[in-house]
Design a protein that fits this description.
The protein is α/β, with parallel strands linked by helices. The chain has 3 domains: 116 residues, Nucleotidyltransferase, domain 5; 96 residues; 112 residues, no CATH class. The strands form 2 sheets. A 6-stranded mixed β-sheet has the order 3-2-1-4-5-6.
């Protein structure tokens, strides 16, 4: 079977066909436009038995990867780090070219049997888009709230309350009587900021409705885990995508950054926090861990048991996060198997 490696860029891509013995055919370079899919499939038609390897199939390579999958092609995702290692190890020259990168991508696919197969974008992609949009709006909302506090501090002696809502801000602004021209301008800008905040809040509420509907439609049981609401569930599902790309819960814990790193020495057994993995997924699991450690339930029992074993607060929380990570893996896998049986 021929493996076609693709090195994608924003406006172009380079593809090279690599044979199982490492022999390569002349490469092809295409401009990325509406005709790219047809052109690359026509070029690849000379090899009926083929598979594709795309570097960064969730990033710059998303477009061509999704187009190929839509056409019924077998497409594998190659992480950029693996492609870089293959390029350095497979050549005496460190010179980086698009053709060399494409060959490296194909080489990784030829020798690595654990690459993820690219799937058509589905409800996980929709949830990811919605959660990312909500995160952006919340960050923007926080920035404008801080800006409003700065304006009100100069307009109103002592400033406003820390937890300031748009209704309270509007009421406060109606009571302020500017004296100087600068204060008149501050009040005018503050009113504009309040209007922007109201628009942000309305958009966030609408996104919350869409996310709740998406989580319900997914048929997930994640919300049955203590500390995981629909927003956290949406974030976890969006970042996890196809759970079967993880062979077991240990691999999932490594991806989520909930697998502590062993730094034991001699008779002293010690683990430290892992900074690896998906930090957004780790943050979502952290929220659930904090909730479980605070509220009555099996999670708090586990947390207190670790404290009784003379573990530090951080170590106990890390242990709880790993426990939650394993529960999430089992839940998502079970949900997926159940939905497949219902669809059969």
């Amino acid at each position: 079977m021929i493996t076609i490696g693709i090195d994608p860029h924003k406006s172009s891509l380079t593809a090279v066909a690599v044979h199982p013995d490492g022999h390569t055919n002349p490469p092809i370079r295409l401009v990325v436009d509406k005709n790219t899919q047809a052109a690359i499939l026509a070029w690849a038609s000379q090899w009926p038995e083929r598979q594709w390897a795309v570097e960064g199939a969730t990033g710059l390579g998303r477009g061509i990867a999704q187009q190929l999958v839509t056409a019924g092609e077998l497409v594998l995702e190659v992480p950029a780090k693996l492609a870089a290692r293959a390029r350095l190890l497979g050549s005496s020259s460190a010179r980086k070219t698009d053709v060399a990168d494409a060959i490296s991508v194909a080489t990784v696919a030829l020798h690595n049997r654990r690459l993820n197969r690219v799937q058509l974008e589905n409800h996980h992609t929709i949830m990811r888009l919605l959660t990312e949009r909500r995160d952006d709006l919340v960050a923007e909302h926080t920035r404008w709230i801080n800006r409003l506090h700065v304006l009100l501090r100069d307009l109103h002696p002592g400033g406003a309350e820390v937890r300031l809502g748009t209704v309270d801000a509007s009421t406060l602004l109606t009571k302020i009587r500017p004296v100087t021209a600068a204060d008149h301008q501050r009040k005018h800008i503050a009113r504009d900021v309040v209007r922007d905040l109201k628009r942000h809040e309305a958009s966030i509420k609408e996104l919350d409705k869409q996310l709740r509907a998406a989580v319900t439609a997914s048929g997930t049981s994640l919300t049955e885990i203590q500390g995981i609401g629909f927003l956290t569930a949406a974030k976890i599902l969006a970042l996890t995508a196809d759970i079967r790309r993880f062979p077991n819960q240990e691999h999932y814990a490594s991806y989520a950054g909930t697998a502590p790193i062993d730094v034991s020495s001699g008779e002293q057994e010690t683990h430290r926090l892992s900074r690896r993995g998906n930090r957004q997924l780790n943050a979502a699991i952290h929220v659930a861990a904090v909730t479980q450690a605070r509220d009555p339930g099996p999670g708090r029992d586990h947390y207190r048991r670790k404290i009784a074993e003379h573990k530090s607060v951080k170590e106990a929380r890390r242990s709880l996060k790993r426990r939650i990570s394993n529960a999430i893996y089992r839940r998502i896998l079970s949900d997926q198997q159940r939905l497949e049986l219902q669809a059969a």
